[in-house]
Design brief:
Blueprint (H helix, E strand, L loop, with lengths): L2 H27 L3 H10 L3 H13 L3 H10 L3 H15 L5 H14 L2 H5 L4 H8 L4
Helix pairs in contact: 1-2, 2-3, 3-4, 3-5, 4-6, 5-6, 5-8
Length: 131
Amino acid sequence: DVTEIEEKEAQAKQEEQILKEQELSNLLHEKRYLKALGLAISLDRPHTVLMVVKAILKEPEGRRHLEENIVRLRKDQKEAVLAFLVTWNTNSRNCHEAQAVLETLLKHEAPDSLLQFSGIKSAVESLLPYT
């Protein structure tokens, strides 16, 4: 019977999730945005990533800080942010943040590099009507 083992694994995953949530909260409170962005992306939490982006933009020199943080993300993290911002861009409340992130990606990524992103074609097709 493997029920007990599966329950322990599920409990361990839940505890790990709670610890990551607490760490994310602490990072936001400490204004350590790059780590917060990375953690929110790894947790696959588009809304949390949006909240981090909004927090960065509220800071003095927010646009510059946003650029610094987005540029330092790994390629897979940038791909995830691109996928998230496609959804954010469809909502008028979040479109400004989506456009700020998109501007940073377009400004700092070479066109050849952008073409290597997974899902870039569908992302562009989805962004065009709202941009």
